[in-house]
Amino acid sequence: MRKLLAAALCLAATATGCGASVESTADTRSTEAVTLTNCGQKVTYKTVPQRVVTNDVGITELMFALGLENRMAGFAMPDDKGDLTDVPWKDGYQKVKWLSKDQLTKENVLDARADLVFAGWNYGFRDDSGFTPDALKKLGIPSYILTESCRNGRTDTSRGIMPPLDALYTDLTNLGKLFGVEKRATTLIADFKKQTATVHSKAPTKSPTVFLYDSGQDAPFTSGRYAAPDQIISEAGGVNVMHDVNDSWTTVGWETVVRRNPDTIVICDYGDVSAEQKKKFLLSYAPLRDVSAVKHRRIFVLDYVDLVESPRNPSAIARLGAYLRTATQRAGTSS
């Protein structure tokens, strides 16, 4: 299964050559200023970064998918994000230094002599830790914020300013412009859109409802409309039962899950609690016993990196789409 997944992901990354080097045009632009729109703000980068530091797996793999590992000084991520040795960008993991198995800190960044930090709100940037774009700016280090994580002004912490796949394409476009790999970014985006459209065209006539379960027993952590799972679910042919929540990753109440009665539950696999343990909890948690997904044991597992903004999103759409089609067919047969 891992080999098949790697092959599918590599197919998705044909535009990057699966570990391809940076387009030669990038080297000629190292002294030119580039202005981008990031989280609704115009940001000017005086030079093309040479020592980028990233936080978390999805952000790191955006750089790898664009063939930018030779522009990186390192990355930080926990070691609970699955097998990294059998993905299209494994060469990037072998070439770029793993700075920390926790989130980035100012010390990590300074030690790496970083000239750009690519992270996101709750993907490294946090007010409570003091690790923010403003704090880095005071140190003379520019930042780029993951678009999926942009704060939207509805509350102090709510995130998301556009549909999740648009966020992915926005970041690929911006990074392509910043590093002079526009052609690679454009080709990659076109390939992702084609894959997604193919899956969506096969979607069931009646869309099954889906609940994304990340973690939490007292109250579940899940995806609102601005986190990647929302559009992964919809493009796969389903409907996120929390689509009306104007946030990205957020906590809801179990009573809401019960009331919305999802046909399928998708588990986000990462962390100290395994997917099997999460599944066991869901199937044994008394308040959920009459929920359709639990009654019929329609529970599907995707990896963490599939479900955050990353170049693995199209593959996740394809796999979830195949599951939903099969589950829908079985439900129709048994009815």
Automatic annotation (TrEMBL):
Secretion signal, residue range per the UniProt entry: 1-20
Superkingdom per UniProt: Bacteria
Organismal lineage: Bacteria, Bacillati, Actinomycetota, Actinomycetes, Kitasatosporales
Fe/B12 periplasmic-binding domain ranges (all copies): 51-331
Gene3D superfamilies: Nitrogenase molybdenum iron protein domain (3.40.50.1980)
InterPro entries the UniProt entry points to: ABC_Transporter_SBP, ABC_transptr_periplasmic_BD
Family membership noted in the UniProt record: Belongs to the bacterial solute-binding protein 8 family.
Name of the protein described by the UniProt record: ABC transporter substrate-binding protein
Any Pfam family hit: Peripla_BP_2
UniProt keyword terms in alphabetical order: Signal
Organism: Streptomyces hokutonensis
